[in-house]
Amino acid sequence: TQQPASTRPPPNATNATTTRRSTPAGGTVAWPVTNVGPAWITPAQQITFTIAVLNKCPSAAAGVVLSDPTPAVLTFVSASAPCGGGFPCVIGAISSGATTTITAVYQVPPSYIGANPITNTASVTSTSVDPNGGNDNSTKTVSVLPASADLAVTKSGPAPTNPGQQITSTT
Fold first, then answer.
1. What is the strand order of the sheet 75-79 is part of?
2. Distance of alpha carbon 87 from alpha carbon 119, whole angstroms
């Protein structure tokens, strides 16, 4: 994960996780989806989101497809397998109790003019029965801080001088 160059986090800057869970009913499938990313970013940087799909049911989830649409104005850079070609992507089956984790990377343009915060929503579908579709997506928001620079000025000159003596200073 690439961290922002700025070292001044905004108030309440944390790596937040959004998780929604359901209670499985009988032999059906329920998939809590989590979406983790940075709390803030500055323009010209990449945002990395880690998306996890967990099968909490006693049976395998079949035909699992993950969607993670590219947020407006951002550019899709890459994703880990099996989503390397972008989204939506076919994950296939997820065994009972197993988790599939995907990392997705997006580029924020240098002259970012868009929604603040950036909203990223990942969602999952399956051909298996799901008793609670309310936990099939997860949204992460990322605040965009203005681009900044860390400037410093130093000044040097000669050691103490006598009255009337000429000195040279550089800035």
1. 17-19, 33-36, 46-54, 99-107, 75-79
2. 16
Structure tokens at 171: 């800035």
Q: What is the per-residue DSSP string for 23-89?
A: ---TT-----EEEE--SEE-TT-EEEEEEEEE--SSS-EEEEEEE-PPPTT-EEEEE-TT-TT-SSE
Query: What's phi and psi for 135, nearest 5 deg?
Result: -110, 15
Question: What pLDDT, on a 0 to 100 scale, did the predictor assign at position 123?
Answer: 94
What element of type H or E holds 138?
strand 137-144
Look up residue 140 and give its amino acid: K
24-28, 56-60, 107-111: which has the highest mean pLDDT?
A: 107-111
State the CB neighbour count (10 A cutoff) for residue 97. Answer: 11
Beta-carbon contacts of residue 162 (< 8 Å; ≥ 6 apart): none
Q: What is the pLDDT of residues 27-41, one digit of tens each?
A: 344 557 888 899 999
